[in-house]
Amino acid sequence: MSWQPSMNWQHAKQRAHVLSQIRAFFLERNVIEVDTPLLSHATVTDVYLDAFITQFNYSQNSHCDESIPLYAQTSPEFSMKRLLASGYGCCYQICKAFRHEQHGRYHNPEFTMLEWYRIGFDHFRLMDEVAELMKLILACKNVEFISYQDLFKREVDMDPLITDKNELIALIISHDKLSDWLLEENSIDALLQFVMAELIEPCIGKEVPCFVYNFPASQASLAKISSTDPRVAERFECYFHGIELANGFHELTDVEQQKQRFMQDNVIRAQLGKVEPTIDENFISALEHGLPPCAGVALGIDRLIMLALSVNKIDQVITFPIINA
Q1: Between helices 123-138 and 301-309, what is the axis angle to 10°?
Q2: I want to staple 168 with a disulfide (CB 3.0 to 4.6 A). Which of 147, 191, 264, 296 is the partner?
Q3: Domain spans in the chain, listed from the N-terminal domain onward
Q4: pLDDT value for 64
Q5: Which pLDDT belongs to residue 62?
Q6: Which CATH architecture describes the domain 9-143+208-324?
Q7: Interatomic CA distance for residues 217 and 196, integer angstroms
Q8: Is it the case that residue 304 has pLDDT exceeding 90?
């Protein structure tokens, strides 16, 4: 283990320049920078996200010998939507986020996220704005837009909205990717996500950023369901050079739908033997008060800077990764 930073001084200066470009981008558009807490009394129910937990001994509602859990944010999403519900306008945040996942080429458990919300936008308008930011930071001239359904048809000759386990397993076998756990997996979403990660993502966004939109409704717990096809939700992701860069939604504003989706997440978490987080009541109260029609997106700053600097490991664009933090 080395005490020295993994990012050199030249890359640090280039990183600072990218951050200044991002802030100038939003200043020009009158999108205001905000700041929200890193610690929260609640966390997300997302089946595939796990938060870091710490203990707080000085709550007003407990004796100092007793502790309550606080959660490191996996993203500032709930807090920022609370701001919007309270009357804030279009806003963005550059902040730390934390996800209890393995350190690797593209992920550090503590990372930097850019998240922003645009009142009155749908996911298509927001994709256009993300594309403009990509062009500014990465100097790419064009982007590609394709629906999730059309992407699967093009890349693996399958319609993901009407597929079943047998078809998915046969596809995985044909690419020599079968493992025992896949045979035991009964979740179509889990199998689709495996196909997406292993068979499709490596093939897209090679020349220009690729925006994939209208994911299956079951894979977008915070997005509106499409008014033209109830099988899909108005969610998008952006991929470039094998890296997942951004995840965005035309935001769900219906509080009853949102509560149902959170509860369904926890049902699945229980089936997987995972902890079932308490639903964030502050966020639910904000939705009850009224979230304005909006679209929002989270973008990985470290991954964006990896692409801007043409490096191949996240450790090269952060000072101290988890292994020597």
Answers
A1: 40
A2: 191
A3: 9-143+208-324
A4: 67
A5: 66
A6: 2-Layer Sandwich (3.30)
A7: 16
A8: yes
Q: The tokens of 89 are what?
A: 């306008």
Phi (first) and psi of residue 49, to 5 degrees: -120, 135
Predicted confidence (pLDDT) per residue in 193-231, tens digit: 999 999 999 999 999 999 999 999 999 889 999 999 999
C-alpha–C-alpha distance, residues 182 and 162, integer Å = 19
Pure H helices in the chain: 9-28, 77-86, 123-138, 148-156, 165-174, 180-184, 188-195, 255-271, 281-289, 301-309
Residue type at 79?
A: S
Contact 246, 25 (CB under 8 A): no
CA distances, 152 to each of 158, 159, 191, 197, 266 (Å): 6, 6, 13, 12, 28
Task: Determine the 3-state secondary structure of 96 from DSSP.
Answer: strand
Spatial separation of the C-alpha atoms in residues 106 and 26, rounded to whole Å: 26
Average pLDDT score, the chain? 95
